[in-house]
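Input structure tokens:
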């Protein structure tokens, strides 16, 4: 499990990894609005709850920057509702984060490119043993 300092570094690396968007001026990835700060804080707190499910292979990173249930059989029946609620909350915040970064840069049309960049970086930063979707949608173990 990541400690708070490691988690902060993880999110900093995530944000610093945004590359210039094709055909656009580079996004200001250090932009900090109250909405972005709130989203990042919720995601950091939730990560501690999600991490065991990534490690078990129950959930994985999707090719579109979200997370999904990969194999519900890796969970006891009693945990499935909780994990599904965590996934829904995480995906809601990820969608909002991508939208807010684009909006804060004054370019809401960049949301798709920001989402794509985040999707790639989440996978690059995933721990060995975690699952992610390949560009074709197949699940792959890192």
């Amino acid at each position: 499990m990541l400690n708070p300092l490691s988690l902060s570094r993880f999110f900093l690396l995530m944000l610093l990894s945004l590359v210039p968007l094709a055909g656009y001026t580079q996004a200001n990835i250090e932009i900090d609005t109250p909405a972005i700060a709130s989203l990042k804080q919720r995601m950091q707190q939730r990560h501690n709850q999600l991490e065991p499910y990534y490690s078990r292979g129950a959930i994985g990173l999707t090719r579109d920057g979200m997370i999904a249930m990969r194999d519900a059989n890796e969970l006891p029946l009693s945990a499935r509702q909780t994990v599904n609620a965590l996934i829904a909350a995480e995906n809601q915040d990820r969608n909002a984060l991508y939208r807010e970064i684009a909006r804060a840069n004054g370019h809401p049309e960049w949301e798709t490119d920001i989402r794509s960049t985040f999707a790639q970086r989440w996978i690059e930063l995933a721990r060995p043993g975690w699952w992610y979707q390949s560009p074709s949608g197949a699940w792959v173990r890192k």
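The CA atoms of residues 2 and 48 lie 7 Å apart. The mean pLDDT is 87.
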